[in-house]
Amino acid sequence: MVTIYDVAARAGVSATTVSRVLNGAKVSPESERLVRAAAAELAFTPNRTARRLRGQHSAVIGLIIPDIENPFFTALARGVENRARAAGYSVVLCNTDEDPEREATYIDIALAEHMAGVILAPADDASDVSRLVAQRRPVVAVDRSLAHAEVDAVTVDNRAGGHSAAESLFAAGFTRVACITGPSSVETAQLRMAGWRQAAARHTGDGHLEDLLRYADYRVDGGRQAMAELLALPEPPDAAVVANNLMAAGALDALHDAGLAPPGFGLAVFGDLPFASFGRRGIRVVDVPARELGEAAATLLLERIGGDAGPAKTVVLRTREQR
User: Fold this and answer.
1) Which domains occur in the chain, in start order?
2) Closest to 177 in 3D by CA, of 250, 249, 224, 236
3) Which one of 1, 40, 64, 264 is most buried, by most CB atoms within 10 A?
4) Residue 248 to residues 15, 35, 72, 186, 318: CA-CA distances in angstroms?
5) 1 vs 12, which has greater pLDDT?
6) Residue 53: its pLDDT value, please?
């Protein structure tokens, strides 16, 4: 059976370096390249049973997300899996449906199964990771941070994204730009809304912004209902910023029912539209780098598993607008 000592000899590095690479700890890019090449040549497979006995955890990472049907989280999961698998870890995917109780159950399972660590897209701002922290189980928040917990986080600049989305609609000549955002208890929803509010207040004043704001549930039906309500206003909007892709699909349905569509009605959306039947024509898309979010979250988690005991880190990725 091939051992890490065989891999070390082939790569010309120490067995400690091989171990650090396999556990996701930081080494030089050249050392990592040599170790991975040697492991591939020798068809080396990490001994997961031995790893668990030594470290009291399995070679499994828990990924807890709020909506498995959203292509954004599918892409995020792919990023996590790619990075984890390269380090010799498997990923168990758990779907909470934005339910804090279900989330808590999955956290209990992660602890009971001695998972090496957890990557969590929190169901809401009150998500409780204290049990993971108390048992020194590495945890990284992704997409949504946890301000009340000293844990690593990987997010995007949601406020800047909301601001640039709204500004692009005003720059295109629209004058009543509404906002359909997610639940008020979710950080991303509040930040994207705050960016819209900043831009809208600059162009129109603060007076009637509440009339043009709707909170929904980050689902297709929520976007459809929110847009229908906005279109029924005595002075309906002529454009809208929609804070995620599924709500945008519902908003487009409501626009179609009202005989409206982009580009005549301005629309800026966070994330790619989920269904092929929805073209991008006339729609401003704020690209949220989902796979990169997953890769960055997995990298932080693997560093913690590998022994990084430094203070909590926050990584913020940029959004970019696609027309």
Assistant:
1) 4-46 (no CATH), 58-150+290-318 (3.40.50.2300), 158-287 (3.40.50.2300)
2) 236
3) 64
4) 51, 45, 13, 18, 21
5) 12
6) 43
